[in-house]
Amino acid sequence: MSTSPPLNVFILAAGLGERLRPITNHIPKPVLPILGKPVLESVLEKVSALPVAAIGVNLHYKKELIERWIKQSAFSDKVTLFPEDPVRGTGGALKNAESFLQNSAFLVHNADILSDIDLEKLIAFHKESGNLVTLAVHNFPEFNNLVIDENGYLTEIGAMFSLCRAPGSRLVAFTGIAVYEPAFLKVLPEGASSVVHAWTEAISSRQRIGTHDVSGCYWTDIGTPASYAKAVIAELRNHGETVYVHSSVDSCRNVEIDGFTVIEKGSMLGKGLSLRNCIVLPGTHIETKESESSEPECF
């Protein structure tokens, strides 16, 4: 374990999860389970393994459900909650927690990201770099939209990229994980804002936004139904399984199950069902093949 001084951690969990609808009509993205474990729990476990001084979590969409889960979890005494109404955006969330974050470097981690990125290496790199911000980045063609120079410094965001722009420049994607110096909070305006805009402001004032390349690490978000399903199947494979049934479910004896199938907590399944390559979300009731499931749902 690193001997670096403890730092603060801030987890962004206030998003609406619009790309994940209709699932997020019923379950907020941070507590969506993967084999019984909410994504937020996996993130909290990962950051808690660091020398952490304090952990903050911002809330907005379906905040009561997320707050209830946190208070019933093993992390209830470790987490400070920052409710937002209205939602403040990624930059506004940090500004809203300025008094919480202003005394030391802090790690920011999106609540919908699963990875095996070595956070200690990221933090150590940042502390040695002298950067205002260090972004964990990777080569992920689907999301590549950050232009970095030959030294790994961010130069442009979301622009049309040309290889002739500067020797050594390349495109990378942001992982949703970064380390910030407290001085970054002064770049942020009051009210709602985006950290992406603040990165641009910092660059324009000749402050360094650096990057730490983690290409090759396992990384996935759960931002869409397809990426959520991909994360679930990856976890099944990690366990050497094709089927997961939560221990609370006792109605599977008369159900035919095939392919990659997951049945989450509190689900009730009627006789004569056939499930193949699907995820039955928490609390789903399915009586027959033809009947409509109750909220949430199977997909």
CATH class of the largest domain: Alpha Beta
List low-confidence stretches.
291-296
| CATH architecture descriptor of the largest domain | Alpha-Beta Complex
CATH fold-level assignment of the largest domain: Spore Coat Polysaccharide Biosynthesis Protein SpsA, Chain A
What about the largest sheet?
9 strands, mixed
Describe, in plain words, how this protein is organized in 3D.
With 299 residues, this protein is of the alpha/beta class. It is built from seven helices and 18 strands. The chain folds into two domains: 7-221, Alpha-Beta Complex (Spore Coat Polysaccharide Biosynthesis Protein SpsA, Chain A); 242-299, no CATH class. 22% of the residues lie in helices and 28% in strands. The strands form five sheets. Strands 1, 4, 5, 6, 8, 9, 10, 11 and 12 form a nine-stranded mixed beta sheet that branches. It has a three-stranded parallel beta sheet with strand order 14-15-17. The protein has a two-stranded antiparallel ribbon with strand order 2-3. Helix 2 (63-72) links the parallel strand 4 and strand 5. The longest helix has 14 residues, at 225-238. Mean pLDDT is 89; it is low at 291-296.
